[in-house]
Amino acid sequence: MIDNICESLTKKIRMEMPEIDEERAEIIKYGLENIIGEIPKIFIMLILAYSLGIIKETIITILIIMPYRAVSGGFHLNTHLGCIISTCTFYCGTAIISKHLEILPEIRYILLGLILIFGIPMLKKYAPADTINVPILRKKERRRKKILSYIILSSACVIAAIFKDNIISNIVLIGYFIQTCTITELAYKITNNKYGYEIYKTS
């Protein structure tokens, strides 16, 4: 259903703007699918979180991780069902573990340091990790998102180390580690994704 809606909208856009070629139309269609597909995905995730008794923790998880994902990027699954399952598992799973996991302060500081040691080189090499359907080609935009990725990761780790809220610290530890993994070449190979920038810059 979502595919049909986006296909129809894309055709209308092309009728209004004949200069849009087939390749650009595919990118527009993919963008529409992401936007429209987010609405039912969010509802499903919140309903699941409510049924599991972690609605507050899930909302906090979304608010903490979303800014980092928005600038660092990461792979996308090819089907709406797969996307819904992976998104719900990521955010609700992170919320559940963060709610119940107890980490000693000394261990937490070490783990946060390791997240930074792992994250900074990964961001330098891969961020912003785009896809072939939604490539990030402008150098200025890539630079801006890379810098913001550094800032958000570093700030989150510092805040998690300073504040004594166990749930927030756990969300940063678990969520930011997983999110950083989603931008890596290994994650892209496993999910059959390709970096859009790498494809288009050589074409």
Question: How is the secondary structure organized here?
Answer:
Layout: H1 2-16, H2 22-51, H3 55-72, H4 80-100, H5 105-126, H6 139-162, H7 166-181, H8 185-190, H9 196-201
Helix pairs in contact: 1-2, 2-3, 2-4, 3-4, 3-6, 3-7, 4-7, 5-6, 5-7, 6-7
Structural overview:
It contains 9 helices and no strands. The chain has 203 residues and is mainly α. The protein has one domain. The model has no long low-confidence stretch (mean pLDDT 89).
Head-to-tail CA distance between termini: 33 Å
Binned strand content: under 5%
Low-confidence stretches: none
User: SSE order, as H and E?
Assistant: HHHHHHHHH
Number of E-type strands: 0
**What oligomeric arrangement do these chains adopt?**
single chain
Q: What is the number of independent domains?
A: 1
Please summarize the sheet with the most strands. none
Radius of gyration: 18 Å
Please, what is the average pLDDT?
A: 89
Key words describing this protein structure:
mainly alpha, 203 residues, 9 helices
Short description:
The chain is mainly alpha-helical. It has 9 helices and no strands.
